[in-house]
Design a protein that fits this description.
With 216 residues, this protein is an alpha/beta fold. It has eight helices and nine strands. The protein has a five-stranded parallel β-sheet with strand order 2-3-1-4-9, sandwiched between helices. Strands 6-5-8-7 form a four-stranded antiparallel β-sheet. Strand 5 and strand 6 form a beta hairpin. Bound molecules: adenosine monophosphate (AMP). The site of adenosine monophosphate has 18 residues, from helix 2 and helix 3.
């Protein structure tokens, strides 16, 4: 089963994506995680992506299409995959459609997480993430150790540079200008687009999402 998660930054795609992937028994790919790991490791990909990411701008399509192709060709994805934040522009949606056509695999569902902008800004400005495993938290301070982190050495909670107010505002503008049209593109191409109300307790939102992927 191939599931594409769409929605503005802070809508909970990452957290819910983990839960959906676990329920379906398939991996999750998040281009944001791939890029952050590359930045941390100082690879050429990371060096290219860092400036865009820190400002809250999108990394060029050609870079994302490369990551997408490589990830989808991996054998672990044979049973399906949850794609979190992987499709953010119309050219990326077209690129994914071409890769899936080549692999003779259908896109089963597009989950669109919807939520009001003031709720997003509040969520992102109170968020810290583990720099090891990327788990997000609200109400936990930067520089705390993440004792539950599965990585070694244990992660430390940090505030993402792109969760600073200026970058958050830019990410919202980028979403409206470049990613919102992707929803219309999928609808125009006959995809199964399911809107999920992303406001609510984690388990409540999860139940809505699982219902939409036929696991509820
Ligand atoms: P995320 O963790 O999904 O919020 O992504 C963090 C940042 O990584 C974004 O603000 C972009 O700079 C970059 N990024 C992640 N996925 C993509 C994508 N599909 N297209 C372009 N840039 C991306």
């Amino acid at each position: 089963m191939i599931v594409v998660l769409l929605g503005p930054p802070g809508a909970g795609k990452g957290t819910q994506g983990e839960r959906i992937a676990a329920a379906l028994g398939v991996p999750k790919i998040a281009t944001g995680d791939v890029l952050r790991a590359a930045v941390k490791a100082g690879t050429p990909l990371g060096l290219e992506a860092k400036g865009y990411m820190d400002r809250g701008d999108l990394v060029p399509d050609v870079v994302i299409l490369g990551i997408m192709k490589q990830a989808l060709a991996a054998p672990e994805q044979a049973r399906g995959v949850v794609l979190d934040g992987v499709v953010r522009t119309v050219p990326q949606a077209e690129g994914l459609a071409a890769v899936l056509a080549e692999l003779h695999r259908p896109l089963d569902v597009v989950l669109l997480f919807t939520i009001a902008e003031d709720a997003l800004v509040a969520r992102l400005s109170g968020r810290t993430v583990c720099d090891g495993c990327q788990t997000p938290f609200t109400g936990r301070a930067p520089s705390e150790t993440h004792a539950e982190c599965a990585q070694s050495p244990k992660g430390t909670l940090v505030r993402r540079k792109d969760d600073e107010p200026d970058a958050v505002r830019n990410r919202m503008r980028v979403y409206e200008a470049q990613t919102a049209p992707v929803v219309a593109w999928y609808r125009a191409h006959g995809a199964n687009v399911a809107a999920i109300d992303a406001l609510g307790a984690l388990d409540v939102v999860q139940a809505r999402a699982l219902k939409a992927v036929g696991k509820g």
